[in-house]
Amino acid sequence: MSNLAQIPVSPTTAGPVKDDKVLKIATFSLQKYLKESEFADEFLGRGGLQSLCEIIKTTSGNTLAYALNSLTSLMDHDHGWETLDNDFIVSIVAILVNQTLVNICRPATAILIKLACADKTSPNTNIQCYGYDVIHQAMLYQPSFLPTLVQRLQSQDYQLCLNSLSLINALLKHVTDLYRVEFTAMLDSLNVRKTVSRLMNDHPSDELAEHLIEFQSLTIRNAHRRRKTQVSLENERHRGMLEDIWNAAQVHDVQGTTKWKKIGFSTESPQREFHRAGYFALENMYAFTKKDQEAFAKMILEQINRPEDRRCPFAKASVEVTDLLSDYWEISTGYTTTTEFQPLLLSFDAIHHVTIQAFFRLFQEMEATTTDFPKVSALVRSQIKHALRGDGSRSMFEFERAMLGTPYQVIRDRRLKELEWADDLLGREPIKNLRTRLYKQSYDFVKQQRIACLMQGAYFPLPMSQARSMSTGAQGMSAVGGSSLMSPLPTAGSSKRWRFYRLCPNRRILNYGDFAERSMCEIRQEDLQEKIDLTFVTDIHTHSMLANQPKPPKSAYFAPDNTLTTVITNASSISTNNHSSIMGTSPPPSPAPVADPLSFALISGNTVLVQFTCLTSTQYAEWTDGFNLLLDRTIANKDTAEYVHTLTEFGVKIKLLGIGGDRIEVPHGNVDIPSVPPGSGTGFHYNTKVV
């Protein structure tokens, strides 16, 4: 197909599309009808996808917007779009870079998000042939793609900002190990974390806040993966970073046997000393040396000129600081349940830089020796907690003042108050490992508990005022195939006031049925004849998002003959609901969502699949986070987050009861790993994992 005039429009009619207005009306109609599975199958069977892709490549303005929206409707189905080629994906990336109209950028963004998520890790789709790697190849043809996305985060246009952040989150979530370091470096060079931090401080809307929290969680998860990546001299990047650190120290006339010890490593095998914090610790050490090389060289020179037992080892301190901050922000576990903004987390390298300065200051002011290193670390840990408390409202300036301006005497006195047996014990390395293990167990337990609430089922009220206003709309949204994506409501004269929902054991289908009153008896499966396929769910909207949803236009869906709509008109004959033809019909307006404080809805694309109004805040937390965890999303409710935290702390304290009763001494600080025994071979290693 070399141009639009050659697009075949149906098996029986293959005339050229000459009228732009006709094409615009055809693509406008497709937006609605491609949401219906049977119509979509007919459309695909007649070669409609190829024609739609050609329209996207060759049109502009509203026609392009309608065609992109039509494709997003088609991609809501779990089949039929696995044949999109690389050239087409490159054209979508180009559209997103070159277009600024929201009605074009929004569906283009949605298409790329769908492609990024359609990889082998996706549990909710049969199409797994795309993923980040495919998007990465398209990005090579559009070098301004990422800069454009980051620039739009600062746009005054709310939708442009929201769409760009959604796509960045999708790419962060699905980036593969092959490109993880490269992609993270590109985002860092564009200062995306600084931009997101500004958005956090600008009092964002609830919808934008949800995406900001997701970016924050993905940042923690990404850092955790880098933390688990061990440093190796066989890796060219790792080896180069270590050499750059050494060169920045400007240490001269040093024999090879003492080279790395001069800048604070304990041995001459520096890669082994990153075993606790991995490549993440190396990144932060490297960033510190590059930020101010002159100050770094001066710091190293000062330590070299001190007596050996009075030196503060820079390398060891840098790794220790990375570990302390990782513990504070839950990077050590990779799991986070916080629903609060943590903008200082997004400035991790700057926080690391200031904390190292504080470490050296305290080491010097307490006149510590190398054996006092764990005590200095305990003081720094205490001061970090003090300086970062309520960090959602703290600025970088306030943190720096707290870390570098607080007198040593004040920090020491506070630490002395903390040195009761339990508080001291909880900060030690074996207990940190215990907490990490128990946190994962608590998270998994709460996940299963929340999903179990869905499988147990519950009643939800079905107000008749809502039913009367929505009954007509629900009937009007009937699919071409005869079923509605939206769960139907009872008619105005119905006596049924309650709807019972229950998740199937396969966790893919949500069954429900309507009842006149709540019953204490167990609901039988045969009483729940209606069902919703949860594989179609793309989002979960809370009450504030529902209240802000725009109402769809009441424009008529119509199209003349001799266009792509020949396919539409012919295929619509398969309807079992006596649908009128699209000529001159006008769909009823979608129902306006209810903005009850305890309401939420499951969304498929732009369609509300089902809306819930919970009876209590407890039910709201159980069901919203039940669906969140079922769909592999982050926890969104403070109640659930506190539940995980409480279980973890109780678990730690119960374990400590046994330790305290047996008077077992828990080591303070890190246990030194002995050298490899002679003659053990190259494969010998110590297992540092928690059993």
UniProtKB/TrEMBL annotation:
Q: Which GO terms describe its biological process?
A: actin filament organization; apoptotic process; cell motility
Q: Provide this UniProt record's keywords sorted from A to Z.
A: Apoptosis, Phagocytosis, SH3-binding
Q: Name one GO cellular component term.
A: plasma membrane
Q: Which Pfam families match?
A: ELMO_ARM (PF11841), ELMO_CED12 (PF04727), PH_12 (PF16457)
Q: Which GO terms describe its molecular function?
A: SH3 domain binding
Name recorded for this polypeptide: ELMO/CED-12 family-domain-containing protein
Q: Which SUPFAM superfamilies match?
A: ARM repeat (SSF48371)
Q: Which PANTHER family match?
A: CED-12, ENGULFMENT AND CELL MOTILITY
ELMO domain location:
237-388
Q: Which InterPro entries does this entry report, sorted A to Z?
A: ARM-like, ARM-type_fold, ELMO_ARM, ELMO_dom, ELMO_domain-containing, PH-like_dom_sf, PH_domain
Physiological role: Involved in cytoskeletal rearrangements required for phagocytosis of apoptotic cells and cell motility. Acts in association with DOCK1 and CRK. Was initially proposed to be required in complex with DOCK1 to activate Rac Rho small GTPases. May enhance the guanine nucleotide exchange factor (GEF) activity of DOCK1.
Q: Which domain of life is it from?
A: Eukaryota
